[in-house]
């Protein structure tokens, strides 16, 4: 089942091409990692797919009416801001709003979704705490839980593991992998190539706004591509614990023509 289709998507800002003619689709059961250097267009790609950025081309999500879009895809932006001093449980419960009619309160199914999201992120002990009083890493996990509580076929997350400690980075990627294994689709932008290789079923590589590679991690992250796009050397190995990818050294810049 196809959950997202992008057809010839391009974005231009102040006469600068940010995305260039990107075509792809994402199906159920995929955990898609969007990787690339800073400024490659990763955030813009996710926001454009959701219809949050003016663009040329077609996005199947952006074409949906807003209520339907909110039930089709959950969005976890890179900017983390909790504006109100509400409890963790209340904040996560906001993820259920797309499923509630005007003036309607949460029912049993909504409370189950909230409980499941809290448990998935290990937030049970924090549920009565005031969200604005948590650490930055804890707040990040609460916002991820809110997106999970939305319980949509597709989840888009922009650098969700940035600022988390190693335990919670791995745990979060494991949650995303579990969602994909259950038949949902997840698109996540990230800079940690090691975690991308270990958890993602597919990688999209952006460079200067272009999609330069798309496929399984071990086919995408070739020494040539890693050197050309990321300007580093790296070690890639298969181990009994799974694939390991470790960037090693910055490569010298090629001489100017």
From TrEMBL:
Domain ABC transporter: from-to ranges: 4-233
Annotated coiled-coil positions are none
Question: What keywords is this UniProt entry annotated with?
Answer: ATP-binding, Nucleotide-binding, Translocase, Transport
| Transmembrane residue ranges | none
Instruction: Tell me yes or no: is Translocase among this UniProt entry's keywords.
Output: yes
* Any one Gene Ontology molecular-function term assigned to this protein's record: ATP binding
Query: Which domain of life does the UniProt lineage start with?
Result: Bacteria
Q: Does the keyword Transmembrane helix apply?
A: no
Role, per record? Part of the ABC transporter complex HmuTUV involved in hemin import. Responsible for energy coupling to the transport system.
Q: Which PANTHER family match?
A: HEMIN IMPORT ATP-BINDING PROTEIN HMUV
Return the protein name. Answer: Iron complex transport system ATP-binding protein
Protein's organism: Salipiger marinus
């Amino acid at each position: 089942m196809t959950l997202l289709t992008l057809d010839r998507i391009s974005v231009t800002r102040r006469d600068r091409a940010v995305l260039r003619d990107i075509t792809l689709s994402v199906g159920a059961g995929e955990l898609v990692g969007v990787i690339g250097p800073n400024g490659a267009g990763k955030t813009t790609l996710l926001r454009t797919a959701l219809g949050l950025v003016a663009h040329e081309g077609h996005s199947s999500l952006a074409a949906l009416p807003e209520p339907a879009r909110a039930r089709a895809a959950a969005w976890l932006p890179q900017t983390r801001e909790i504006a109100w001093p509400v409890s963790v449980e209340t904040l996560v419960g906001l993820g259920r709003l797309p499923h509630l009619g005007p003036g309607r309160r949460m029912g049993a199914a909504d409370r189950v979704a909230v409980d499941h999201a809290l448990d998935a992120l290990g937030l049970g002990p924090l549920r009565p705490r005031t969200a604005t009083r948590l650490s930055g890493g804890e707040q990040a996990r609460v916002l991820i839980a809110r997106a999970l509580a939305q319980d949509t076929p597709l989840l888009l997350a922009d650098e969700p593991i940035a600022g988390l400690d190693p335990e919670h980075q791995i745990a979060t990627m494991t949650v995303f992998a579990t969602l994909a294994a259950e038949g949902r689709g997840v698109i996540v932008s990230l800079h940690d190539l090691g975690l991308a290789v270990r958890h993602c079923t597919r990688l999209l590589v952006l460079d200067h706004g272009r999609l330069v590679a798309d496929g399984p991690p071990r086919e995408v992250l070739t020494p040539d591509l890693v050197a050309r796009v990321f300007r580093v050397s790296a070690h890639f190995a298969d181990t009994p614990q799974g694939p390991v990818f470790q960037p090693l050294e910055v490569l010298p810049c090629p001489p100017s023509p």
